[in-house]
Amino acid sequence: MADKLLIGISAQGVAVARWSGSRIDECHEFVDDEAGQAGFKEHLAQFSNIPVHIIVDAVEEDYRFETLPHASGSDRSEMVGRKLKQHYRNTQYVAASLLGRDSDKRRDDRYLFSALTNPELINDWLQAVVAAGLPVAGIYLLPMVSAAMLDKVETKATNMLLVAQHANGLRLTFFRDRQFRLSRLTRGDSGRVENRSRYFAEEISNTRLYLHALRTMTLDEQLTVLLIDRTDELAEVAEGVTRDNPSLVCVRLGRQELSSHLGLPASQLEASPFATYLQLLGMKEPSSNLAPASVTVGHKRYKARRAVYAGCGAIAAAAVVWAGINASQMMGLRGETEDAARETAQLASRYTEVTRQFPQAPASAENLKKTVEIAQKLRESLHTPQRMLGIVSRAIENSPAILIKEFGWKYGATDFDAQGAGSRTTATADSAPTAASGPALSRKESALIEGEIRPFRGDYRSAIVAINALAGRIAGEPDVAEVRVVKLPLNVSPSLTLSGNTVDNPEQTATATAEFRLLIVLKPES
Length: 526
What we know:
Elements: E1 4-10, E2 13-20, E3 23-24, E4 28-31, H1 34-44, E5 52-57, E6 61-68, H2 73-87, E7 94-101, E8 109-116, H3 120-131, E9 136-141, H4 142-146, E10 159-166, E11 169-176, E12 179-185, H5 193-213, E13 223-228, H6 235-244, E14 248-253, H7 255-262, H8 266-271, H9 274-283, H10 293-356, H11 365-381, H12 386-396, E15 402-412, E16 426-429, E17 444-453, H13 460-475, E18 480-487, H14 506-511, E19 515-522
Parallel strand pairs: 1-5, 5-9, 10-13, 13-14, 15-16
Antiparallel strand pairs: 1-2, 2-3, 2-4, 6-8, 7-8, 10-11, 11-12, 15-17, 17-19, 18-19
Helix pairs in contact: 1-3, 5-6, 12-13
């Protein structure tokens, strides 16, 4: 737990202790006079940048229980603020604690309003704290702090009265179902031993009567008294209270019990009456903080500064972790690089040893490289009739009567010579173009197809229609630039002289054929 400075203020003076770890250090007391205030300021000078929490033990305190309509957010804040100003006009040290909600249909909110009605009691001490540059985190009334004592004892009674002897009187604080209901600070004389038992018994009895008048508890209900005895001087008082009041259960918390419950050395408990409450405040801060915003502004800056430091620390820690990860990765990559370099050197050495055993090559490495590059270029410039064969195959796929007898293909600057084609299937390609023959884009791919119609029974008209249909299907291919029918089974040119007879000749019909020839030119490849 972070360090903090704990201060207890009463009409007699102040007690100061520093919280470190899980308990307070040595408790210092300063009386309320010029010398005491000067010593207090001198004592504060040794601290810097540490939050301050203040307890006030005074008669000038007020507590009110109010029931307000249920609200939330800014509406609740405004309503509670108006109520506090209505009840406490002459002090700025006020607080409101929400206790819960009623069980009736309206479900109103139940509040405890508390205030220090004499601000002058703490103003001089508070100004000294602010002048020392210490941030004030909170100001609390002592009964609110003492509620934490109930969590340290094993008693589970419904009605509990916490009684403790202070320098300025007897403090009696009543709790019902472990919730604060009432607190009194008497100003009677309890220092004399012979009057002490009677004095305690009378004040406890007066408190019971007051609680009965407030209808907080009846006289018939059992009351458990927790007697705080930090100096082990009230054993007879506990016996006398129990003897004179049969309806009371008095539990004395002696020095050893307090030391065990609070985790505080017994010597610290004897140093000051405030030691017990400063230890409780260090363990748990109550919700009812009397300090106004004008007093806690320094503490808000302190928390903001701490948040910035924490954020910077987190960023720095993340950066360190990231740098460590990067360094680890870099070392790993450096090791891999060194391994790869060693492996490369080993392979190069083995390669050199192996190449020394090779026979002498017939050509230099440079010439072999050029030869491979030339072979690659020739392979890339090679053309085959695959595209042409695909077009022709698709065209005759649905024409079983058409028989291809010869197929001639050429890739060159000129079309296939339809008149001078040989009597067998040929495929030719011109040599690579030179500067005189123009660029490779002007070369053409052409083919000459020779075929016939089978079976043919002398019906030339049907044969010519089938041949023209074949030429049309080929011309419909997107890669075809031109299709020309070079030869038909019957010359239908109007310039020729028509001759013959009308006598049927079966022998001539049986020997007749329907041969044709097509010239196909493809578009250049894109």
